[in-house]
Design goal:
309 residues; mainly alpha; disordered C terminus
Length: 309
Amino acid sequence: MVGKPGLGRTSRRRTASLGHRAARVAAGLRSGTAARLLSRLSALNLVEGAVRLAAQAFLTALPLLMTFAAFAPGWLQDLLADSLRAVLGVRGDTLDEMRQAFSATGTTRDTTGAVGLVVTLVSATAFSRALQAVCERCWHLPRAAVRALVWRWLVWPVVWLVFLLFQAPLRGGFGAGSVSGLVLSVVSATLLWWWSQHLLLGGRIGWLSLLPGAVLAGTGTVLLSRAARLLVPTAMERSLHEFGPLGPVFTFLSWLIVVFLTAVSGLALGEYVASTTWYRTVAAPRLASARRAHSPAPGEAARRRPWAR
């Protein structure tokens, strides 16, 4: 049997139409929002920045924790161990090793003294400088003057240490339950990343522009930490039994890389969101108006605070 000529032409038209549509979709993907976003993220070298932050955190933040534990009383050592357990979910032999490390810091205190504490804090500024470089790269800013940032490099690790110290009660919602703990963790992490960007960038970017990155980085790291409580303990226990005390070290370093990759990606995506027309013309003005609506007038503020006159 010979097919009808019309059916062949219709099939060829449909094939050609599908080909044109596929070409238009491919062209749209190459020149659309997703393509611009991917090209911007690839230009920022997110993986390199995350690996550098993880290395600096491992080399400078951990000695700062050990030095702090050397000078802290016993209840603060227990709080720090509980907070690390809440963040990483460590348990069993790994938790015992951690508690022994924190409790065996008397010799460290005797040998280092106050001068060693100051030196450790100054060396921890390498972590602050690395994070500052990542923030400046995300916002396409030049390096700021060193004189304006020295005190910021010192303040940031101290605030970070205090934030880490209270992770155990915070993630428990201060006794209110896990749901409240999750909400408090997301809010506090968002505030930390919001303030961190403002501090390390020297106030060169407005607060409202920094908010999307803070929300993405804070939410992403908290959710990742919740997932890590299910995965990291098993990995640490296995690495401890297979490779000895160095096994959890490699597991922890790998986890740090994933954490900072999530945080840096959130900061970079936040810069992209803050630069969109929707955020600049719709979201940011609404947030600014809501802030003005909840802020008292100057005269009302003076009446509420007589000492401000």
